[in-house]
Amino acid sequence: MSARSLRHYEDEGLIVPGRFSNGFRDYCQSTIDRVLVVRSLLESGLPVRLIREILPSLTDGSDAGTEVVCAEFLHEVQGYRDRLAARIAVLSDQRAALDAYLREARRTDL
Prior knowledge:
Layout: H1 3-11, E1 18-19, E2 25-26, H2 29-43, H3 48-59, H4 66-109
Antiparallel strand pairs: 1-2
Helix pairs in contact: 2-3, 3-4
């Protein structure tokens, strides 16, 4: 992880590292574990807003309310996935239209 990424996660409220007496950040094992979860979720394409909402229940170690949180989170993830699929469909249509235009333009150039 880059220092810049860690500071970004901290600015977004995704991690809260400890501090040494000299002010340097202290990334204990639980913070490192949390960073790995954040990174995995970000790599999955989830927005920071969703990660920030679900993260406490994923990393606090308790099972209190997990089923409700998971159901709500899965609903949010499904909605995000559906919006992503719709955007992909629009982009695919645009690409197909551009391909058709290019084919036609090349054909008339001959």
